[in-house]
Structure formats: structure tokens, C-alpha cells
TrEMBL record:
<dbReference type="InterPro" id="IPR029063">
    <property type="entry name" value="SAM-dependent_MTases_sf"/>
</dbReference>
<dbReference type="GO" id="GO:0070475">
    <property type="term" value="P:rRNA base methylation"/>
</dbReference>
<protein>
    <submittedName>
        <fullName>Methylase of polypeptide subunit release factors</fullName>
    </submittedName>
</protein>
<keyword id="KW-0489">Methyltransferase</keyword>
<dbReference type="GO" id="GO:0052907">
    <property type="term" value="F:23S rRNA (adenine(1618)-N(6))-methyltransferase activity"/>
</dbReference>
<dbReference type="InterPro" id="IPR010286">
    <property type="entry name" value="METTL16/RlmF"/>
</dbReference>
<dbReference type="Pfam" id="PF05971">
    <property type="entry name" value="Methyltransf_10"/>
</dbReference>
<keyword id="KW-0808">Transferase</keyword>
Amino acid sequence: MEKKNIDDKFIGLKIKDAIIFNENLKKYVEITINKSGKEIYKIDFNSKEAVYEYNVAILKGLYDLNMKFHSDALVPTPVNRYTFIYYIINKFLDNLDNLDKPKLNILEIGTGSGILSILMSKYFCELTNNCEKDDKLINIYATDIKEEYLEIARENYSNNLDKLKLPIKFVNSQGNLIKNILELNKEVDNKFDIIFTYPPYYSDHSVASIRSFGGADAEKVELIGGGKYGEKFSENLIEEAKDVLNENGIIAFMFPDKPEERRVLVENKILNCNLKLEKYEIQSGKRKRHIIFGIKK
């Protein structure tokens, strides 16, 4: 099966066009005229409120999704999240035997607003052309530690239900990763084909503040990955994932560019758990992101 290339229409929305999809954005936009008489649209990206409204517009304009976020949480960047999901699905397509499975279980750890799982639900079938069989069973499970985040995720799911292809069940992890979540044990016997996360990645030495955490006024447990470089959460997740991934199953992470040491530790953990390591660097505006896969062979 030929892979689909990422469509340019999914990876950018000008501020001028974003206003069309979210009028609340207008009050955060400054319009100036340059020497050529051209209008220049600018947003103060240090303003969490402006970023919030801009990303709401992007979700509507690029992905036809109506979403909101918790006021205290990180404001996710939709284009990065879509790109992450796109890479996950295409990596899953690397082994076409995956498409012959009558049942697929997909798990997100730390869903927050639900954006990643909702994008997965919307685009998995489109990118794989593999949901048309009546006997095909594909389920997405999305966990989080905070019930108030899960309430927003469920609301976002309900508000977009007519556009989504796969069911999502939102589960309170009660502070667990995978194995000790009773609801997952009961429903899927803890076996998954895809596990993915945009993990907490701050080190033990990070000082909680709204600015340092990307606009989030959140508890340490949500944002601190632990360890010297913030790697501990991801390492612990890999340790559990290696036992619950089905054959050819994948675990996927997305990380910021720095520090490199964090990525190296996570990559080494993948190799030490006898998973195949694959990694990709993506560019989003001026920022780099890294997608890291562990594949069970």
C-alpha cells in the first residue's frame, strides 16, 4: 500500500485566515502596514490567551475540529500534534501485516484535552484505508491523571463525534502508566498495537512557573518527567510497554529539541528493552521536534 504524503493544507494557517475561523482571535491581532502598503498580521505569542484562540482557529480551519482546552493546562500546538499522528500512522503502515489484524487497540498516555486521540480517530482510517470491513474492530483508549482534563477531553470528543471514525474511551489512570489500570486490564487484557504519548519531560530540578511550563499553571506531577533530564517517565513507560505491545506494535514519543541528553537516554532505553529504534526530526516554524519510535519485533 502506498503511503500518503502529508498535505500542505494541514501544516499551516496564516493569522489573517485564522480570524475567519475564530472571531475571538481578532482582539489579539495587531495589524500594521509595511512600506509596500501590505497588511502585516501579528500575534503576541507570549500571551497564553492569544495562543489559545489561535490554536482553536487552527483546529477548526485545518482539521475541522471544534475544541477547547483547560485554562490551567498547556496549550497544544495542533500542527505538531497532527504531524505526530501522521508519522505514527505511517510507521504503523511499514508492516502491512498490521492491517490484516481483525482487532487493533490504540492507547494514548496523558491525553489532556484529547487532541492527539481525536486526531487519531479522525485520520487513522483515511491514511490507512483500512476501516471499511464490518468485522474490523479498532478502539482508542486515552488516559490522564486528572479527571477535570478528562471531562474536557470527553466534551471535545462529543462535540466532534460526527467527524470521527473510531471510538475513544477516556480513562482515569489513577497515577498508573499501563499495567495497573484496571479498566484496561478488563477490556483489552493489556495488549496494544500502538501506544503514543507527548510525555511530561521537565527534569526533577525544574521550578514550576506559568512561564517555564509553556503557559501552564499545572501541578508538578503532570509536567515533571523526572530524572536529571526529564527522561524518567518515558523510561518507565517503555519498560511497561515492551510487555504489552503486540507483535509489530509501536510505542511513539514526541520531544522538544533540547536537551539532547534526554532523547539519548530514552533511545537507549528502547534498545535495552529489545525494541527496534527509529527516529525522525521535524521542523515546525523555527522549532525542532523529535519523534522516537520503539517497535516490537
